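Protocol step 4 of 6: structure prediction from sequence.
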Amino acid sequence: MLGKILARYVLPAWPLLVLVVVFQLGQSIASLALPTLNADIIDKGVVTGDIDYIWRTGGVMLLVSLLQVVCSLIAVYFGSRLAMGMGRNLRAALFHRVVTFSQLSAASTPSS
């Protein structure tokens, strides 16, 4: 039953779903790159005393952090659009289904 609901209401919005996955993946990759850059700062900058390397790698870390935030915001935006659209469609389908129940019961009651 859940598979039918997903197929009916999520598949028409597959571009939004793909965008959510892509931007979440970008956010995760950026998040996983930061500890590596931090280790590089320690191994190649602090240990050797290379201040210029520390500043350059710190700048790269800031850019990666900015990319992470942007990807996260875009993923949340597209995810909310997907959820709102799917909720709207589900509510409309449920409303129409409930209306048919009242029409069926009105048609089946005998008139006096």
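Step 5 (inspection) to follow. The two ends are 41 Å apart (CA to CA).
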